[in-house]
Amino acid sequence: MTTVSSKLLFSFYSVLFIIIIVSQAQGQPNFLRNYCINNNGNYTANSTYQNNLSTLLSNLTSNTEINYGFYNFSYGQNTDKVNAVGLCRGDVKPDVCRSCLNDSRVLLTKLCPNQKEAIGWYVDCMLRYSNRSIFGVMEASPSYLKWTLKNATEVDQFNQVLGNLMRKLKEIAASSDSRRKFATANATLNFETTYGLVQCTPDLSQQDCNDCLERAISEIPIYFNNKVGGIVLKPSCNIRHEIYSFYDPTPVIDPGETSPSEEEKSKSSHTTIAIVVPTVVVVVASLLIFICICVRKRKAKINLEDIEDDNNDIEIAESLLFNFETLRVATSNFSEANKLGHGGFGIVYQGILAGGQVIAIKRLSTNSGQGDIEFKNEKAQLDWERRYKIIGGIARGLLYLHQDSQLRIIHRDLKAGNILLDEKLNPKISDFGIARLLLVDQTQVNTNKIVGTYGYMAPEYVMFGEFSIKSDVFSFGVLVLEIISGQKACHVFHAQRSEDLLSFAWRNWREGTITNIIDPSLSNGSRNEIMRCIHIALLCVQENLVERPIMATVVLMLSSYYITLAVPLEPASIVGGRSRSLPVRDMQFEGESRNHASITDPYPR
């Protein structure tokens, strides 16, 4: 009898939740950004998980004991257990906070109709839920970043004042009361005031809050590019700065009030549910009539394509599947006029979808050889300013793959031929045919099958089949030296020495003649920038992967002259240096191609 009653109550409650969605969704404001996370599986309609999610979200803000804008509750058991976190900005009043979270639960479940994990941000609040434990765990991805268009006038002074302000706020927030880790303040430079705000979810430890905010603050010089305002949103923390006051006074925390324990919160949640569910039984009959009327009137549904992305968003790229006919039409039957180039396994075409979106399509060929002709840039078109822009763009692209993507992505075949330039010469990393996905907490993977391009592969990968983000860092360093020198990595400068690009660069670095490797066409480029890029490249190609910087550090070194560079150690040799004398364990090697093109498996992708 108890089981039957529970099922009926769940059914009634699910009906009420659906009714609320139908009646509210039409006028629902859009999120700043939301993510439907597919890694943890999906739930089916009317499943226990959906019922638990509906129950939990409907009661998330009903707890009247906490007035500090933070809600974290769970509902359900075992694999059907749902965990939810709601966080409002620290200066937002309780009624506004609850309204924002109520809007969030309606829209987030609508935009992510069957994902077990999702997150969405409004200006005033964030809501996330998952079937895994998310309480007290520092998570910095997925991220959302947005910045204003206005540039600072006195860049160096502005960055210094802003950096000091944000780090001061970080210290305050991280050490704040466990009920609200939030801080705001302002600083003035030449009569112009900058306002800053930082916040962590209160369930984080002081160290985790500090780490999350430090990570967010470090992204300001990387992505904001001297803009006077911007926002960084992460699951565990957020920051914002503007040149106008955008926050209200923060309500004072009552020192006599304490946060309830997890056990008390669980009891409170169950009590609230016990009170609300019987109410549903009373009103469900009239609401069923109401839902029929609403369904008839509501023909238009929320279209995800109508939610416009800001051009400056940094987001997770979702895979799209197209049938062959769509691709054939998009490329005018794979017209020669739309050919962009070709690689080892087929020709790449430009296509235009029906909606106007421009895409690149590789048509695989079963009888094509491994890339007969490599793509070569016109060096005359690439002066130092353009090359420096390309270097920075590639670095930011790798940083996204390694750090800001939902999953850590190791490209494994970063080289000049896999960098595409758009009409404005903005670089795009391409060809993810042999890329590997790593979990966020994974740092290294081993393989018995070595694939890639010789000359760009890190020594630990070639010798032992070990690859990590540091493998991509090594490839990046080789690529930077190629861009600066205009020479191939495996080019032998002095045959009697079997000297490749890395060896040549290292020898000239030690002998104080590093200018010997600079492309003569770059004579008008900034010598300081060129030398600094060579220095950074040598740090990236050091033989010991521990000594190589991560891409976040590389981007900072490229964008700021205030960071002192370490002295590089000897790089690995591509042709015949010390690395080649190391023992190689028994591994399966794919044969090296004559033109050093990518070595991949010919499976459709």
TrEMBL record:
<keyword id="KW-0418">Kinase</keyword>
<keyword id="KW-0547">Nucleotide-binding</keyword>
<keyword id="KW-0732">Signal</keyword>
<feature type="signal peptide">
    <location>
        <begin position="1"/>
        <end position="27"/>
    </location>
</feature>
<keyword id="KW-0472">Membrane</keyword>
<dbReference type="InterPro" id="IPR011009">
    <property type="entry name" value="Kinase-like_dom_sf"/>
</dbReference>
<dbReference type="GO" id="GO:0009626">
    <property type="term" value="P:plant-type hypersensitive response"/>
</dbReference>
<dbReference type="InterPro" id="IPR017441">
    <property type="entry name" value="Protein_kinase_ATP_BS"/>
</dbReference>
<feature type="domain" description="Gnk2-homologous">
    <location>
        <begin position="31"/>
        <end position="134"/>
    </location>
</feature>
<dbReference type="GO" id="GO:0042742">
    <property type="term" value="P:defense response to bacterium"/>
</dbReference>
<dbReference type="GO" id="GO:0005524">
    <property type="term" value="F:ATP binding"/>
</dbReference>
<dbReference type="InterPro" id="IPR000719">
    <property type="entry name" value="Prot_kinase_dom"/>
</dbReference>
<keyword id="KW-0812">Transmembrane</keyword>
<keyword id="KW-0325">Glycoprotein</keyword>
<keyword id="KW-0808">Transferase</keyword>
<keyword id="KW-0677">Repeat</keyword>
<feature type="domain" description="Gnk2-homologous">
    <location>
        <begin position="140"/>
        <end position="246"/>
    </location>
</feature>
<feature type="binding site">
    <location>
        <position position="362"/>
    </location>
    <ligand>
        <name>ATP</name>
    </ligand>
</feature>
<dbReference type="GO" id="GO:0007165">
    <property type="term" value="P:signal transduction"/>
</dbReference>
<dbReference type="InterPro" id="IPR001245">
    <property type="entry name" value="Ser-Thr/Tyr_kinase_cat_dom"/>
</dbReference>
<keyword id="KW-0675">Receptor</keyword>
<dbReference type="GO" id="GO:0005886">
    <property type="term" value="C:plasma membrane"/>
</dbReference>
<keyword id="KW-0067">ATP-binding</keyword>
<keyword id="KW-0723">Serine/threonine-protein kinase</keyword>
<dbReference type="Pfam" id="PF07714">
    <property type="entry name" value="PK_Tyr_Ser-Thr"/>
</dbReference>
<dbReference type="InterPro" id="IPR038408">
    <property type="entry name" value="GNK2_sf"/>
</dbReference>
<feature type="transmembrane region" description="Helical">
    <location>
        <begin position="273"/>
        <end position="295"/>
    </location>
</feature>
<dbReference type="GO" id="GO:0004674">
    <property type="term" value="F:protein serine/threonine kinase activity"/>
</dbReference>
<dbReference type="InterPro" id="IPR002902">
    <property type="entry name" value="GNK2"/>
</dbReference>
<dbReference type="InterPro" id="IPR008271">
    <property type="entry name" value="Ser/Thr_kinase_AS"/>
</dbReference>
<dbReference type="Pfam" id="PF01657">
    <property type="entry name" value="Stress-antifung"/>
</dbReference>
<protein>
    <submittedName>
        <fullName>Cysteine-rich receptor-kinase-like protein</fullName>
    </submittedName>
</protein>
<feature type="domain" description="Protein kinase">
    <location>
        <begin position="247"/>
        <end position="562"/>
    </location>
</feature>
<keyword id="KW-1133">Transmembrane helix</keyword>
